[in-house]
Design goal:
The chain folds into two domains: 2-97, Gcn5-related N-acetyltransferase (GNAT) (Aminopeptidase), CATH 3.40.630; 117-219, Gcn5-related N-acetyltransferase (GNAT) (Aminopeptidase), CATH 3.40.630. 30% of the residues lie in helices and 28% in strands. It has seven helices and eleven strands. The strands form two sheets. It has an eight-stranded mixed beta sheet with strand order 4-11-5-10-9-8-7-6, sandwiched between helices. It has a three-stranded antiparallel beta sheet with strand order 1-2-3. The N and C termini lie far apart (37 Å).
């Protein structure tokens, strides 16, 4: 049941900011915001048939024509026949643990071990650029960052399509994360902490803050994908459980 809910969410979440093109067994989401996320192709939610390498190639050609990254995302347990086909097409596939919070679970997140401010950021927050920069630095495994262009973040925050959270110490932003509620389902994404601030419980505190925010908004299904098994264990320790495998396929560099 939870995987079906997640699949419906994955189909719904890009639609306010993207055009959806059904091409064979896939839906290709094409961003309508030049400053927004470029999106990807996913299996059509109503598709019950097989996939071929030519199906994948047709999407790749369309993505190239549009100047988009050659990118596919899906849940292996929902579409189990797709993984070998995508691999046969020559794309690189990253397998990420997919986790969800069981209903009624209380997040057991410890308080950060050093003074820390964690807050939900408004569209016009002066801290937004710092939080965006810190998360980008965290995923680049760097401590040094500069405030980044906030791109479409203010618009998406103001519209309620995304909730952005930042973490700050006495020097400045050290990380952040977000979630994007659609109805009663949301995904926690982009949770990152710069290297100098890791191992202080900040990632867990960010996850707890995002989860509590989602619950306060009436969300009942909260899920996330982890980069790898070691990262997944961090979220499992605070109450999330594995429900599947998220697949992310991209073209070779």
């Amino acid at each position: 049941m939870v995987l079906r809910t997640i699949e419906e969410y994955y189909d719904a979440v890009p639609r306010p900011l993207a055009a959806a093109e059904d091409i064979g067994p896939f839906t290709l989401f094409v961003s309508t915001d030049p400053a927004g996320w470029p999106y990807y192709a996913r299996p059509r939610i109503d598709w019950g048939g097989a996939f071929t390498v030519e199906d994948v190639s047709a999407i790749q050609r369309r993505q190239r024509d549009l100047g988009m990254p050659e990118s596919f995302e899906w849940v292996d347990e929902v579409t189990p026949g797709l993984l070998p086909v995508v691999r046969a097409s020559g794309l690189n596939v990253e397998l990420c643990p997919l986790l969800a919070l069981p209903p009624g679970t209380r997040i057991a997140a410890p308080s950060p071990s050093s003074p820390m401010r964690i807050e939900t950021l408004a569209a016009d927050s002066p801290d937004l650029a710092g939080a965006v920069g810190a998360v980008a630095a965290a995923f680049a495994n760097e401590d040094t960052w500069l405030p980044r262009d906030t791109g479409s973040w203010p618009t998406r925050i103001a519209s309620g399509l995304v909730i952005k959270v930042g973490a700050f110490d006495d020097i400045g932003a050290v990380g952040g994360g977000s979630h994007s509620p659609r109805g009663t389902t949301t995904e926690l994404t982009g949770i990152g902490v710069i290297p100098r601030a890791r191992r202080r419980g900040i990632g867990a505190a960010l996850t707890a803050h995002l989860t509590q925010d989602a619950l306060a908004r009436g969300v009942t299904t909260i899920f996330m994908s982890a980069q790898d098994d070691s990262v997944a264990r961090v979220y499992e320790r605070i109450g999330f459980v594995r429900v599947g495998t998220a697949c992310i396929a991209t073209s070779a560099p």
